[in-house]
Amino acid sequence: MKQFCKNYFYLRQVKNLKHRIAIFASGTGTNAKKIIEHFISSDKITVALIVCNKPHAGVFNIADQYQIPALLIEKKKFVEGNHYTDELKNAGITFIVLAGFLWKLPAPLIRAYQNKIVNIHPALLPRYGGKGMYGHYVHEAVIQSAEKESGITIHYVDELYDHGQHILQVTCPVLPDDTPEKLAKRIQLLEHEYYPKVIEEIILRNEPASSE
Ligand code: GRF
After folding, report:
1. 143 burial level (CB within 10 Å; 0-12, 13-18, 19+)
2. CB 154 near ligand 1, within 6 Å
3. What separation in angstroms does the CA of 142 have from each of 51, 101, 166, 195?
4. Span from the CA of 180 to the centroid of ligand 1 (angstroms)
5. 61 lines ligand 1 (CB under 6 A)
6. Is residue 97 classed exposed, middle or buried when 0-12, 13-18 and 19+ CB atoms within 10 A define those classes?
7. Which of 58, 125, 133, 176 is surrounded by the fewest CB atoms within 10 Å?
8. How far apart are CA 136 and CA 184, in angstroms?
9. Whose CA is nearest to atom 14 of ligand 1?
10. What is the DSSP pairing of strand 95-98 with strand 19-25?
């Protein structure tokens, strides 16, 4: 009986923690940190893995800080075939969050996680997106074009850069005395506020967790 109870509670625990996120990041990882913190006490969703392509990226320190396993990936293995797709599946990853990840995802990975990969972009797509449009390049281009508004776009990921179906856009003003740094700060606040909540909503909406 004792053994039965132990197994039963173990199974319930595993069942409730069925949504396992891998966060892919290439840089500092401030979004990764906010997402980890958002789910830290969730009984339905957990950040199970950090995936990074740069050996000295700040996101490794965040993984350490929260004791989350981290995987450094190699370009050749990543772009060719299924190597990391299998690794993610074996680690029980059910959802992928891109948070400042700069490589394009290979087709087998996108197919394996259809509608289960999201990205955030620091501008109002479809403008100011695509290859090479990241970080300060985005904000410089927005200011140079004298835009009155910028913001964030959260979207599903397909095989093109910054291209999948939009999930949410939130705007903010571009002020007359804005520098790329000032605008970046304003946009970062929006990212930190909205990204974790949107991820939670999508995961629970697509695959409602057991009410047991
Ligand atoms: C964010 O601005 C995000 O929109 C973009 O990459 C940046 C990542 O920043 N995709 P951080 O490393 O999370 O601070």
Report:
1. middle
2. no
3. 30, 21, 20, 21
4. 14
5. no
6. buried
7. 176
8. 7
9. 30
10. parallel
Q: pLDDT above 70 covers what percent of the chain?
A: 89
Mean per-residue pLDDT over the chain, rounded: 91
Is pLDDT at 9 greater than 50 in this prediction? no
pLDDT at 206: 74
Q: From the CA of 104, how far away is ligand 1's center (Å)? A: 15
Residue 174, ligand 1, Cβ within 6 A = no
The answer to whether 148 touches 162, Cβ cutoff 8 Å, is no
Ligand 1 atom 2, closest CA: 122
Predicted TM-score of the model (pTM) = 0.90
Please confirm, yes or no, whether 139 is among the known catalytic residues: no
What does the pLDDT look like over 72-96, one tens digit per residue? 999 999 998 788 999 999 999 999 9
- Cα–Cα dist 49/37, whole Å: 14
- CB of 29 closer than 6 A to ligand 1? yes
Note whether 23 and 50 are within 8 A (CB).
Answer: yes
121, 139, 155, 192: which one is catalytic? Answer: 121
Which of 99, 137, 95 lies closest to 116, judged by CA? 95
